[in-house]
Design goal:
This protein is an all-beta fold and 294 residues long. It folds into 2 domains: 203 residues, no CATH class; 77 residues, Sandwich (Immunoglobulin-like), CATH 2.60.40. It is built from no helices and 23 strands. 31% of the residues are buried.
Length: 294
Amino acid sequence: MKSNTHSNKKLLHYATSAAAFLTINNLQATVVYTDLDPDLMVGGEGGEISIDINSDGNDDFGFFVYSFTGVGTYYGINFTYDFKLAAVSAQNGNELFGSLVTYSSYSAVYTPVLPAGEGINSGDPFAEGGGTLGVSLMVSLSGFPYYDYQAGNWSGINMGYMGFRINIDKDHYYGWMRVSVNEESTLITIHDYAYENEANKAIFTGQTATAIEENPLSATEIYSNGTNVFVALPEQVKTESTVNIFDLTGKMVKNYNGVAGSITLDCNDFPSGNYVVYVTEGELSIKKQVNLTK
C-alpha cells in the first residue's frame, strides 16, 4: 500500500459560482491519496472487508458480497436459484455520496457512479447507511438455465468513482474511491482512494499526486426559469457536450446529446422541485442544482 500526501493549488479552477455548491477559497488544501497495491478484492460467499480511509483506527466504509442458493417447485416443476448481491455501507457515522431511497418499508442509499473530475463538496447529497451495487439472479428449471437477471447501477462498472464524506465531530472530509464491480455481482475491487485532509474543503474525483488541469466547463452558465432550464457553454468549449438532468433520487429524467453553444430545455413535464443538471464533455463535467416551478 502506497500513501502520498500532496498540496494541490489548482482546486479553484474547478469551483463554480453556483449557490448550491461550495465555493473554494483556500488553494492550499491537502489531499491524502492511497494507491492500493495489490487492489482490495471482495468475493465469494459472505465475503466482506472494511476500510479505514484516514487511518484513525476506525472503519469508515465496508464492502460485502452475499451469495445463496435455493430450490423450489412451481406447478410441479423443480427449479433452483442462485442469487448474488454486491453492496457497500458507510460505517461509524460516515456517509456515501448519494440519496436515501425508500422502497415500501425498506430504505437504501443510491450511490451513483461519478465521472472523472467531478467535484465533491457540501452542496452534494450524502446519506448514512448502505446500498446495493449490483445483483445477479440465475433460475434453472429441471437443471436447465431458464432466467438470468443482472441489475444495479454499479453492475459491470470498471474503475468507477464513488464519493464519500467522513464526519468527525462537526467537520466533514470529502473523498472518493475507485471501485469495480463485475456483471455477476460476485466480485468487488477497490483500486485506490483519496480524501481532503482539510475539513470542509472540496475534492475532485481522480485527484491524486498529479495536478488536475483546468476545467473549461467551469464557466458554463446553468439556471432555471419556471419550467425551463438554460445552459450556455463557454466559447472555449469547442466540442459537443451532453446535458443530463437528474432528480434528487439520482434518477436521470432527461438526456440531451450534441449540445453546443446555448440551449433552452423544456421541462414542463417535470413535477415542481429541485433537480441536478450535469454537463459533460469527454471526461470533464460540471453540475448545478436548479429549481423548477409550474
